[in-house]
Amino acid sequence: MAEIHRVATAIRARIGQIIVGKEAIIDLLLAALLCEGHVLLEDVPGTGKTTLARALAGALGCTFQRIQFTPDLLPSDVTGLSFYNQKLGEFQFRPGPIFAQIVLTDEINRATPRTQSALLEAMQERTVSIDGETRPLPRPFLVIATQNPIELEGTFPLPEAQLDRFLIKVAMGYPSAAEEEEIVQRSLAPSAVAAQPPVVAAETVRSLQEAVRSVAISPPVRQYLVAIARATRDHPDIELGASPRGSLALAHLAQARAAMAGRSFVLPDDVKAMVAPALNHRLILTAEARLRGQTATAILERILAQIPAPVEGV
């Protein structure tokens, strides 16, 4: 746990040289990486989503690929394809951009459902099946997908099955006035960050991911997080609550948050901090709730206020 805490602190500092503010977002990305999960960034263009993904890849020494999703993008443009090499007289496989350790899928909701589904196996199984052959993807493997929640013309909303594959969903948000001024100031001066060596090797990340799974969750804390997930299924403003995959996501993220803090056990505060990122995209609100302006995050906050957190010794 001490090593995870040291690495997380160093990565925060490195990314902080490129991204101004956004410490909470950086922590969520690190938690998702340690859980071997994937991230959905939903925000307007120009808020630093691509820069954040590149900064994370550079700090980890991981290979990085960006896929710009468009309506004419084909599944083979993502996964790769087999072609006939006339010189060798045989078929050869040409890997697509999904064969990288950190993959940024920009504006994922602009691609057709057929192309979006090409990511499902890669995100869940860390493999790609083409022409009857299953090929493993490099590890660690992290998909950071972005989508614009404002411009909906010409988009294809992600189905619930694919939304559920993302471990967390977060929004970058606009910077404060002071942060935006610092962004402008940094852009006027040359940066030497790109020349710096990675904070940690990609191979080391795999061992840290294994260590996170050993973080202990006591029975009372485990019952607490399950109660939160189950409460979403009975709430009058929620048509479809979190599935058991949501409970697993919440548990793994709480483990990662505890490990990043240098602890070998999960506290109720770890669970509370991860409820919104882990569950807000897994809920479908009723039509009446949406008309009243309710949001999944606000409902989750009310659920947290209603369920008592376990207290040590009680």
Automatic annotation (TrEMBL):
One term of GO molecular function: ATP binding
Domain named ChlI/MoxR AAA lid: residues: 230-303
Membrane spanning residue stretches: none
Domain of life: Bacteria
Keyword tags: ATP-binding, Nucleotide-binding
Identification of the protein by name: AAA family ATPase
Pfam families on file: AAA_3, AAA_lid_2
Statement: the UniProt record of this protein carries the keyword Coiled coil: no
Protein family membership: Belongs to the MoxR family.
Residues covered by the ATPase AAA-3 domain: 38-168
PANTHER family registered for this protein in UniProt: METHANOL DEHYDROGENASE REGULATOR, MOXR FAMILY PROTEIN
